Amino acid sequence: MPESCSGRAFAAQHAEAVEPTVGTHQHRLAALLADMVPGARIIRVSQREPGQTWPSPYSRAYDERGRLITLNRAQALIAARWVTRAHPHASWDEAYDLDLTTGILRPAAEAYAGAGGGR
Predict the structure, then answer these.
(1) How far, in Å, CA of 13 to CA of 16, rounded?
(2) Is the dihedral of CA 18, 19, 25, 27 positive or negative?
(3) E strand residue ranges, 1-119
């Protein structure tokens, strides 16, 4: 057993396994995306980029007022991949919104209907 500087052996300590909860994982993802896209409140993710017929990870960012924030190609692709991999249970046939303040993923159709039909 390795010895410490004082010559005494290190005592075995119980390691508590801390499993990350879904909430923690969601908040961590939201925090990373908020750092990557300053000023963003919502990341909308889908598998269909407008103007393309084949599936491709795609995302858009919106600020707290619902205004579009321009993402470069790398940001849009990385954000879409991170969200789709973090939420494999979602049916990616439709677009989803990730709220960066709460980490909650919900169908974009709900946000569209809740905002009076437009964003």
Answers:
(1) 9
(2) negative
(3) 42-46, 58-62, 68-69, 96-99, 105-107
d(C-alpha 31, C-alpha 114), whole Å: 24
What's the token pair of residue 48? 């269909």
Q: Provide the residue-wise pLDDT of the chain in tens; the chain has 119 residues.
A: 555 555 655 554 444 434 445 567 888 999 999 999 999 999 999 998 878 778 889 999 999 999 999 999 999 999 999 999 999 999 888 999 999 999 999 999 886 565 555 54
| Buried/exposed 43-67: b ≥16 CB within 10 Å, e otherwise | bbbbebbeeeeeeebbbbbbeeeee
Cβ-based neighbours of 78, under 8 Å, separated by 6 or more: 36
Cα 101 to chain centroid distance, Å, stands at 11
